[in-house]
From TrEMBL, chains A, B, C, D, E:
This is Magnesium transport protein CorA. It comes from Adhaeribacter terrigena. Belongs to the CorA metal ion transporter (MIT) (TC 1.A.35) family. The keyword Glycoprotein does not apply. InterPro entries: CorA_cytoplasmic_dom (IPR045861), CorA_TM1_TM2 (IPR045863), Mg/Co-transport_prot_CorA (IPR004488), MgTranspt_CorA/ZnTranspt_ZntB (IPR002523). It is a multi-pass membrane protein.
Amino acid sequence: MVKPRILQQNKISTKVGQKPGFLFRPENAFDTRLFLISFDEFELVEKEYESYDELFAYMQQRPHQRHWLDVRGYGNLEILENIARDFNIHPLQLEDVISDYQRPKVEEESGSLFMISRMVTFTPKKLIDDDQLSIFTGPNYVLTFQSDYEDCLNPLRLRIRGGKGIIRKRPVVYMAYAIMDVVLDHYFPVLAEMSDYLDELEDCLFKQPKKEILSRILSVKREIVKLRRIIWPERDKISELLRSSPEVIPDDLKIYFRDTYDHSVQIIDLVENYKEMSGSLVELYLSNINNRMNEIMKVLTIISSIFIPLSFIVGIYGMNFSRENPDGSINYLNMPELYQPYGYITLLFLMGALILGQIYFFYRKGWFK
Amino acid sequence: MVKPRILQQNKISTKVGQKPGFLFRPENAFDTRLFLISFDEFELVEKEYESYDELFAYMQQRPHQRHWLDVRGYGNLEILENIARDFNIHPLQLEDVISDYQRPKVEEESGSLFMISRMVTFTPKKLIDDDQLSIFTGPNYVLTFQSDYEDCLNPLRLRIRGGKGIIRKRPVVYMAYAIMDVVLDHYFPVLAEMSDYLDELEDCLFKQPKKEILSRILSVKREIVKLRRIIWPERDKISELLRSSPEVIPDDLKIYFRDTYDHSVQIIDLVENYKEMSGSLVELYLSNINNRMNEIMKVLTIISSIFIPLSFIVGIYGMNFSRENPDGSINYLNMPELYQPYGYITLLFLMGALILGQIYFFYRKGWFK
Amino acid sequence: MVKPRILQQNKISTKVGQKPGFLFRPENAFDTRLFLISFDEFELVEKEYESYDELFAYMQQRPHQRHWLDVRGYGNLEILENIARDFNIHPLQLEDVISDYQRPKVEEESGSLFMISRMVTFTPKKLIDDDQLSIFTGPNYVLTFQSDYEDCLNPLRLRIRGGKGIIRKRPVVYMAYAIMDVVLDHYFPVLAEMSDYLDELEDCLFKQPKKEILSRILSVKREIVKLRRIIWPERDKISELLRSSPEVIPDDLKIYFRDTYDHSVQIIDLVENYKEMSGSLVELYLSNINNRMNEIMKVLTIISSIFIPLSFIVGIYGMNFSRENPDGSINYLNMPELYQPYGYITLLFLMGALILGQIYFFYRKGWFK
Amino acid sequence: MVKPRILQQNKISTKVGQKPGFLFRPENAFDTRLFLISFDEFELVEKEYESYDELFAYMQQRPHQRHWLDVRGYGNLEILENIARDFNIHPLQLEDVISDYQRPKVEEESGSLFMISRMVTFTPKKLIDDDQLSIFTGPNYVLTFQSDYEDCLNPLRLRIRGGKGIIRKRPVVYMAYAIMDVVLDHYFPVLAEMSDYLDELEDCLFKQPKKEILSRILSVKREIVKLRRIIWPERDKISELLRSSPEVIPDDLKIYFRDTYDHSVQIIDLVENYKEMSGSLVELYLSNINNRMNEIMKVLTIISSIFIPLSFIVGIYGMNFSRENPDGSINYLNMPELYQPYGYITLLFLMGALILGQIYFFYRKGWFK
Amino acid sequence: MVKPRILQQNKISTKVGQKPGFLFRPENAFDTRLFLISFDEFELVEKEYESYDELFAYMQQRPHQRHWLDVRGYGNLEILENIARDFNIHPLQLEDVISDYQRPKVEEESGSLFMISRMVTFTPKKLIDDDQLSIFTGPNYVLTFQSDYEDCLNPLRLRIRGGKGIIRKRPVVYMAYAIMDVVLDHYFPVLAEMSDYLDELEDCLFKQPKKEILSRILSVKREIVKLRRIIWPERDKISELLRSSPEVIPDDLKIYFRDTYDHSVQIIDLVENYKEMSGSLVELYLSNINNRMNEIMKVLTIISSIFIPLSFIVGIYGMNFSRENPDGSINYLNMPELYQPYGYITLLFLMGALILGQIYFFYRKGWFK
């Protein structure tokens, strides 16, 4: 497994002083691909276009249909700028679309919306990975922008293709809602995976607390904090949408946004829970270190307390005090024990008793668990 | 006892991208049972119905009575959908009802209320268990939904059956209040049990601080945090009800809601107290580990400090410096002590004095408590 | 002294599902006693009544006087219910009065006030003890309720009896203010005693940090948190009174309430200070444990570092390497030191030098303080 | 140096139940002294008066001049009460003036202001010392009250005496501003001294972390918290003044108050910084204790690891296994090493190699720094 | 590398009691230099002026051009006061300009703006260095003040010189925006460098946790807290600008300010992240100390546990119990092991087995990693 790091290399854009709205082609940008789903209640056409002009002409010809233009990859700035021109996107908004990182937000102008959502995925290696999804709505279209080809919107595409239901009858803002809702729903499985990961870490803590675990816990904590930074503005975004005028979001659609709002609050609750829990894991880890120290010290103390005094005792009887007085007579005061017939055996018994006594003492102190 | 875990397996719904309001039959859902209490000031009829149609017909025939339809178990989606249709429940609301987890909230529409409360119970094994209770009010009925057959509303049922008092004369919103109030009142015994549990943990801490206690404290802390997440929106819910128009809640009933509001604030106070206390228990545990370490070290140090120097002393007199010079004469400088008549006894006395001196030294340092 | 506990047995009422306003006679309730002080500018009559009817008749006859009816002990529910009926007290309010614990609050209805204050006392055993004082005002009377016979209002009674001053001329709401103010003033000596107690704990920490001190600090912290839970709503209560209409509190009295408001804010400052300080004491305690550990380790290390090498040295000269070769000749290589005339004395000197050297080394390291 | 204490003996007034506005002569109160500065654009008279009546008569005679009456010491209650009567000071305000501790606040009534500021000084012994300065403004006078004779207003007095500038032309509220501003400006040198003190503590931490340092850090932290309690309401006070009507503070003076507001926010920033830093110092201290423990343990472990095994080895060759079989023949199996010609020297070499090996091992582990 | 310090010598201005708006020439102030860029859509003139009068005359003659007067260095107070007089700058504002430290803020008066921004740079030695940039706008000019000659505005100067684009057509407030935006954009590379620095510290922590690292982490934390104190008011400043009237900032420019607002919020997110991370590093450091202690203790315990009992055993066989009874007969009970033919070898084997057993025991406990 990769060495866990607490600090994550943040991709911070460091261009300074460019004129606002100036576009950089991001490094390693994917080629731009254009997907269009056009539909009304009766018909649905889905196609990937090579040429933007062809696509735009097609949309122009079908003003009564609804269109979802899905732009993936920012490799071709020219196409992006054409789209911005044709769909009335401000250069600063386009800059936001292409930038590495924007917080979830919504901007409303003359009835059309510009929203930024963040799509999250979980992998045990990189933990949380979050990509930006930019959504624009117009009278009869929804535009989405994302930097790579994978996303979490397939369930929605299936619903559009399959169902002739509500989504194909409602105004396009409903589809914007549906996209936002699918993105938000995707947080739940990610959080479930995160929960499993935390669970696994707790298991490790109980089994064998390795040094790296703390790094791992702290890096999960960092990711939870990151999630928190994403999900709070997400909630604010939805709450702002809920307060918008009926021209932007018809009143009968508001209940759907309120539902999404509830979801965002639930996600916040879960994220806050995980934050608390990762803090608890740190506490547990630290107390585990101390507990291990206690155990190590107990082993040392038991061994030392038993054998150091015994060594002293046998040291006594290794002394060479002279049995003889200078005049050759026997000195009965110098170490008479050595000359007792049962001296050695008595000593062994005494030392055995001492050992048992100490063991009993430590047992009573509860040092053997 | 079950091994305590800090992390709790959260049941996170992971269905993504379904159309809003789409109903899943929850796994392990209980069969749907229907209980109806119909009453006015003079009469009360209470019955469990097998057939929803029969029940609905009965309600239709008695428009001047008040009805409490109590739906338990979400196993039969068809019945639930029929109820939603007949009682004008929005699909998204029905989805909320069936979902695993919703925060307490209230939604008001054209004078009728949709409220979600959470019923909590305490068991030493699982600590806090919380179930969702959904309440709808209409002109002459209250609908409640819950996922299993057990609840904490029996005291209220007894009151309705027994008393001919206020509850059978007041508008149905009073009954909604009564249900909410009983649910909230039930928090107090749960908190009392939690307090006992914390108390028991503190006892354990003083007696024999085992390793598992920290996990147990941290899992109680997690539950307290969970309670907090429930009770704060509960308070907000009641506060929103207090601000609602007199058509929804007549002014003379507001005082009852204010009383419930006071209860919710008291619960918050208690929960915050318990949070603080569980934090104190963690601090106490950690300092206990350190105190034990101190004690272990004291034993080691006392034993070592006494016997290691003594071992050195007896080691001296175990040396084999020669008493004889090469010329056979006696070398009076090499270890003359060994040849003193009282050498051994003097040494024993000296070592005894040393031991006593050290014991006195450690006693003065307060190492024997 | 009683064993300090962090957790305090909270008296949590666990009755569930009773109809709102239902009265329980609290366990161990004191007999209800009735004290009446009736006065105008010229006259003052003070009496304890056995019979409530007699008392009420007396009040009825003197509509132009002001009356302070002081009800102590909740043993006789019937009297309390009669008072509620005669003085227009809502059953829910009466329930609040009798309940164990209500936060400070104020309710205003048609110009009369219902206020709850908490009277605190400090004892070294139980630390903070808080009793509830409920105050009702009417056109010409003030009603107070308390659960036992002791209170902190005697200074006020003395002022009423003695002074013919402002308190006997002003509207009754001034008396309600005066009661509330006396209760709040009583927090200051309690805080002073708490400060002394904390001071004593700090002294203990410096002298001899016993194990129980942490429990004691943590239980003081708990009490401080409890005080905080009381005093913040107290402030809110006064702030609400300040915003009330001139009919309830005449404008020229507002300055008195603002003064009380300032006091409540001062109390909050002090309580927050004490909270901070008790946190500092915990930090100090924990660092003291570690410092003691350091000291213990130093003793062990000094003793071991000095005597373990010495034991090795004397061990060398206790070895029995043979002085004789197999052929009987002397082996000058095996332990020649033993046969030097000054061998023993030289060794003793060397070991003495080693000891001094080590002592100097540890002295330089600053291990002897 | 005085023994640092975390807890500071708080002077808490413990008089309870006195009638509001009742004045106590504070213990150890200074004699009341009266200083008057009267000036207009052309003239300035400054004098200390013995008699208040004389002073008041002088002020009455000069209604077109501006007066700054500076009252120092609260020893003579009669004078204070006369001033209160003549200058229309409410008894509760006078009580505030004399009281030990009031938070910074402002009260406005019919165009005149009553403000409380706190003057701080720093001494290494007592750290922060704060005195109360009460300011009243009237149509043509400013009244200030302080409990002792020293204050930080001398720079302002010099400005009034010296300059004929703006301060002598503007309305008196400008002078109130000037006083408040000087008091606030005085926080900066105090904070600079505090910064030096913290710096010195950090130096101590690096040199020789004594036990008392933690107490000292924690007592600085307490003082910082105290400052915070003073400076936040100071900011609120100024912000309230900024919102006051143009009759109280003319619009062209508001810019001066906004400047003072900026200063108060800067002070808050600094105080919050110091709070953070004192927390860092605590962390540093605690980690230093642990580092020292590590060092102590390293010494013990190195010495023990080297010499305990060696002692065992020399112990082996101190055993007395018999070289002779019972039949008198030589037992070549019992400790033959002792009889090798180079046995002793070989052993010494081996032990030397063992010592070097261990030293290398610990060196590689980085235990010698 | 310089010794890291947690406390940073704060430059706190300690002048007290000066009249508001009084100017001090800062110590070590740079000579004042004047740079003027004058331009319209067609022409651009850029020049450094020696004489302010000449410069002002030039500006007066070209009322239809736009001017950016860039004042660097506060050494010449006279010039600054002339500028203040000519461009209508209040003395208090000029005082703010020259002062060491002002929080970011904006003041608006009659359509012109006074803004303070802080320019930050990162150096590994001093970490964050922040300089103040003061901006004034007028009908056709922008004034900037900074204390030294280096700044981060060069990219903007290049844009003005090069592009004939939007910046030379828009009203001057757009240029004020552009300056503010460049300053803010400069935070991103500074944060990237800070991230690298934190990263390096984490690396050090894993390799060899030296004592100084904690100081270094804590001083980074201090800098992050400093950044936070700067960036939050920066955000508030922009948010205030966003709410200003269309006369001050035309509506079509608001979108640019909103973009800058988004940037400030992103910076806040990053700064909060770094704060969290530096806290995690402290936790990691502390747990590392404890882990090292554990390792040290393990070495000691393993060595001691193996060799102390062995020393005892060999001590036994070094005792001198007499083989002979007083009558000269052999005492077969005293240490018979010494006289066994295979005694020594058996003992060596037994001790070897003991060593292996203990090694296995510690291996099973996981003490060898």
